[in-house]
Amino acid sequence: MEPPKIHRRRPRYSGKNPRRFEEKYKEHDPARYPDTVQKVLESGKTPAGSHRPIMVAEILAILAPQPGEIAVDATLGHGGHTAEILPRLLPGGKLFALDVDPLELPRTEARLRAAGFTEDALVVQQTNFAGLPRVLAAHGLSGVDVVLADLGCSSMQFDNPARGFSFKLDGPLDLRMNPNKGRPASTLLATLDEAKLAQILVENSDEPHAARIAQSILHAQARQPIGTTRALTAAVRAAASGVDGETSVRRVFQALRIEVNEEFAALENFLRVLPGCLNPGGRVAILTFHSGEDRRVKKSFTAGLGAELFTNVADEVIRAGSEELRANPRSSSAKLRWAVRSGAK
Ligand SMILES: C[S@@+](CC[C@H](N)C(=O)[O-])C[C@H]1O[C@@H](n2cnc3c(N)ncnc32)[C@H](O)[C@@H]1O
Questions:
Q1: Same domain, yes or no: 152 and 281
Q2: I need a labelling partner for 142 at 20 to 30 A (CA). Which of 72, 94, 153, 220 fits?
Q3: How far apart are the C-alpha atoms of 112 and 154, rounded to whole Å?
Q4: In a domain, 206, yes or no
Q5: 135 and 281 belong to one structural domain
Q6: What's the predicted TM-score (pTM) here?
């Protein structure tokens, strides 16, 4: 016998302007509701369930993808950069798109396939970019011509309360880009003492009130284990209100996210293997979103230039222009650096 069909109502709006991520069904379906999505974009916001690629023109100018070349988008996200780079590699070229996120990756792949990118031109793989040499070896490649990495997390991850990335939305304190791996931030918190937590806040996000905030978080944790974004936010505000409360909350979330996802280790490994993954003359561009990332990229590119692995590297970071800053406030913290691989491998 067929199981009875269950009719599920779409979640109703609680008011005129939907505030909850799940209620923004029009923004989640741009093909059906282009006008709504356009309005959201014009207001300088990112429609729910999507992500706006940052510094696209600058990245295309640096990477200069050519027909027949092979590229890697190490952080596929919503596929915005891939959708711009890949057509420029055709005919004859190919793009390998990587991402650790097993929830968003299939959605992005489906969108890109529906847009006409076939499997001979676009290879999508759920993996950490630190494993790039293994991905290339599995496809019989010794190097590629173009590499892009757009670090951090996507708007889809950030805006989905179920993933716990944002202090503005209540949800489980998870913060993992790959929820099938490692431990959520709530579990990590339960293992930390004050000194270690303060150290994480300083090292991962330069938090000036680290000691005070760590003490407040662990006092709250002792009263009741912190399992939600709201509980963590309250504990940080209790220590940092009146100083730079909101900024500190943002920095605490960033620091824990970096720790939970081991982001610095992944970036350092990626930077170490990168020159060996580029063909002579190959170009790499990396977008970073805070000083801990940018410091590592700058140091690695400078060392690569000294070791003659690169012929040229960015002298200065490139920032988003005023028009992009107005249209997409999330571009304000982005810093872009590039390098060009030398002739010898
Ligand atoms: C800022 S978003 C990329 C957005 C993308 N450029 C676009 O235009 O849609 C960063 C993405 O990188 C992924 N990511 C972060 N660290 C990663 C890692 N070590 N390996 C692979 N993917 C990673 C995240 O899951 C996220 O989807």
A1: yes
A2: 153
A3: 17
A4: yes
A5: yes
A6: 0.89
